[in-house]
Amino acid sequence: MHRLELKIPPAIVAALIAAGMWCVSFTLPAFTYAPMLVATVGLGLIGFAIIGWAMLSFLEAQTTVNPMNPSSASVLVTSGVYRHTRNPMYLGIFLILVGWALFLANVLSFLVLPAFILYMNQFQIKPEERALKARFGREYLEYMAQAPRWI
User: Fold this and answer.
1) Separation of alpha carbons 76 and 45, rounded Å
2) Cα–chain-centroid distance for residue 17?
3) SS3 string of the chain?
4) Dist. CA 100–CA 82, nearest whole Å
5) CA 96 to CA 5: how far, in whole Å?
6) 151: burial class by Cβ within 10 Å (0-12, 13-18, 19+)?
7) Are 51 and 130 in contact (CB under 8 A)?
8) 86 with 147: CB under 8 angstroms?
9) How far apart are CA 115 and CA 122, in angstroms?
10) How do residues 24-62 score in pLDDT, each as one tens digit?
11) What's the CA gap between 42 and 20, in Å, rounded?
């Protein structure tokens, strides 16, 4: 089980989930209604904005944005969007995937979304948390008590 930890970049995981959502969208007829396009674009823009805000926070703190090597973090970022969630980049990706599901307009596409959360929690976030606890100790534990994992 640990063989998958920190092995597949989150963007690749998201692309695979999006492809799976697209594949299952052909199994049932689509449901459409005009405001869905607005919601699709809105969720995508919000997701990208959250990711950008999070990345900017890392760059300003001069620490790594590489999710594959969390132990190389030089600073624990807890301000900005990180006050509200410990994983804003993954939250942003999830919102983009929800927007994609709306765009596909198929119920089965929504059923694939939990796979992203389950995979990220098990194989990306938990290993990151272990690495950050080892690197920042009590400071990270206090941060964990203040900010939720997702929202």
Assistant:
1) 26
2) 12
3) CHHHCCCCCHHHHHHHHHHHHHHHCCCCCCCCCCHHHHHHHHHHHHHHHHHHHHHHHHHHHCCCCCCCCHHHCCCCCCCHHHHCCCCHHHHHHHHHHHHHHHHHCCHHHHHHHHHHHHHHHHHHHHHHHHHHHHHHCHHHHHHHHHCCCCC
4) 25
5) 23
6) exposed
7) no
8) yes
9) 11
10) 988 887 777 777 888 999 999 999 999 999 999 999 999
11) 22
What tens digit of pLDDT does each residue of 102-116 get? 999 888 999 999 999
Query: Which residues, 6 or more positions from 81, have their beta carbon under 8 angstroms from its beta carbon?
Result: 50, 53, 54, 57, 88
Whose tokens are 């620490």? That residue is 63
pLDDT at 1: 62
Give CA–CA dist 87/151, Å, rounded.
9
Question: Would the CA dihedral through 58, 59, 64, 68 be positive or negative?
Answer: positive
- Per the document, the length of the chain is 151
pTM (2 decimals)?
0.92
- Cα torsion angle, 148, 68, 2, 21, sign: positive
